[in-house]
Write a structure and sequence with these properties.
Blueprint lengths: L3 E3 L3 H11 L5 H19 L5 E7 L4 E7 L3 E7 L3 H10 L4 E2 L1 E6 L6 E7 L8 E5 L2 E2 L3 H12 L4 E5 L2 E2 L1 H10 L4 E4 L1 E2 L2 E2 L5 E2 L5 H6 L3
Parallel strand pairs: 1-12, 4-5, 4-6, 4-8, 8-10, 9-11, 10-12, 11-13
Antiparallel strand pairs: 2-3, 6-7, 14-15
Helix pairs in contact: 1-2, 2-3
């Protein structure tokens, strides 16, 4: 069974309070989502496998450790894009795939409109990224497609979730670890997380 990890770091919680605030402007919101992406990456990647290599320092030879596998970041468009630069700043060698999903406002079911993965995804550690884990539909659909592409080592990286979304994702993909900053109270009748932070995509890109 995959684990669910919550981040209690004071800096992350401070930034969460900023993006929850309805009065936070687009620039500040985007910057803080990006910075949360950077800060959570250290814990998300804590158990990545390494391999030993020999390195010549200016003084002597020594044994060092490097990542044993590629890392591929797969944001769920559009909101997932808000965390990509923050994660990529910490893992600049990571490849980036994209999956475009939108939620049908009537059925709340995810509809796919774009898909592009790097070939390395099969053997890589894959970070599926979306700031919000609400109904869980988009996360489940995205991970279905990542698995169909051949990936086996998959982690979900978000910011705010709710019990319904966590349950949906763990039920559909019990082998996938989930990383979040907060598990909020519930979903409302419109499929939004309460208290949440509103529509993350709109707030990131100033579209509402």
């Amino acid at each position: 069974m995959g684990k669910v990890v919550l981040f209690n770091h004071p800096l992350i919680q401070h930034k969460l309070s900023i993006i929850r605030n309805k009065n936070t402007d687009t620039k500040t919101f985007r910057e803080n989502v990006n910075e949360i992406g950077s800060l959570v990456t250290f814990e998300v990647t804590r158990d990545l496998l390494t391999k030993k290599i020999e390195v010549e320092t200016p003084v002597a030879s020594t044994t060092c450790e490097v990542l044993a596998k590629e890392v591929v970041i797969v944001p769920i468009l559009r909101a997932g894009l808000g965390m990509v630069d923050g994660i990529h700043n910490v893992i600049p060698t990571a490849k980036i795939g994209h999956i475009g999903l939108y939620r049908d406002e009537e059925t709340l079911q995810p509809q796919e409109y774009y898909l592009k993965f790097p070939k390395e995804i099969i053997d890589a550690t894959v970070l599926v990224v979306d700031p919000m884990l609400a109904t869980g539909g988009s996360a489940v659909a995205a991970i279905n497609r990542v698995k169909k592409a051949g990936a086996k080592d998959i982690r979900f990286v978000g910011i705010v979730g709710c019990p319904e979304g966590v349950k949906a994702l763990t039920t559909a993909h019990p082998d996938v670890d989930i990383y979040l900053v907060s598990i909020d109270e519930k979903l409302n009748e419109h499929g939004y997380i309460v208290p949440g932070l509103g529509d993350c995509g709109d707030r990131l890109f100033g579209t509402k």
